[in-house]
Amino acid sequence: MIPNILSIAGSDPSGGAGIQADIKAISANGGYAMAAITGLTAQNTQGVHGVALTDPGMVDDQIAVIRADIRIDAIKIGMLGSAPIVAAVAEALEGLAAPVVLDPVMVAKGGDRLLEPQAVAALRERLLPMAAVITPNLPEAADLLGAAAAASSREIETQAGALLALGPRAVLLKGGHLDGAESPDLIVTADGAQWLEGPRYATHNTHGTGCTLSSALATQMGFGLPLPEAARRAKDYTAAAIERSGDLQVGSGHGPVHHFHARQP
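Above: the chain's sequence. Below: its structure in C-alpha cell form.
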C-alpha cells in the first residue's frame, strides 16, 4: 500500500525547501504527497526575501477537507510562522491517529527567522506533545529549551533528553552543526538512545536538508516502519541526496539536495 503523507509547511518558490522539498522527498521515498500551505516565502538559494503567512482559518480548512476525504498515514509539520497558525494546526489534527513528524523550522539557512519568537512557546506547549518524533537541529533545540546550542556529544544527549521530557514520543536531534568529519544524529525514546552516524560531505548544497529528512522520515513511518529503523532509512536517503547534490545546477548560494538521485545513474 502506498501511504498518504500530509505535509503542513510553507512554500519555497526555488524548490529546494518547504512544501516543494517535502513533496519531492515523500515521492522519492514511495509515498503519495499532500500539502497544506502555511505561508508563502520569496526565497532562493541566497536567502529569504519575504514571508506572507496564510490565514490560520485557511490552514485549518486545508487540513479539514483532506481529513474529510483522504486517509492520512503520516504527517510532517514544517514552517508554521505564528502562534495562531500553531494553534490552528494543533486543533485541526486533534484526534488523528497518524504519526506526526515535527520539524520545528525556526530559522532559514541564511539566518532569516521563520517562526515568530512568541510562537515558540505555543509550539512547545501545543504541538510537541502531539508528535511521534521531533527533528530539530542544534540551534532549534536550543531555541526550544531556552539554552545555548549543544557543542558536544554529551550536551546533545542532555538536550535530547530535555526535549523528550516536553512530551514527544521520540527526539531525533541532528548534529550536523558540530565540527568534524562526521555528521552524527541522536535518536532518543523512552527505551533509550541511539547514535546514527554518517559522513559529512564537503558541499554548500544543503538547502532543504531538514525538510527532506523529516519528510522522508514521515514517509517511512507511513509505511509502518518503527523507530529507529525509519530514522536510519531517512538519514541514508538524505545523505545520498546531499552527496549527489553536485549533479544539479541550481542557484549561486546554498543549492538544493538531489531528491531524485536514485532515478539517475
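Helices lie at 18-28, 56-69, 83-92, 119-127, 138-145, 153-164, 209-222, 229-243.
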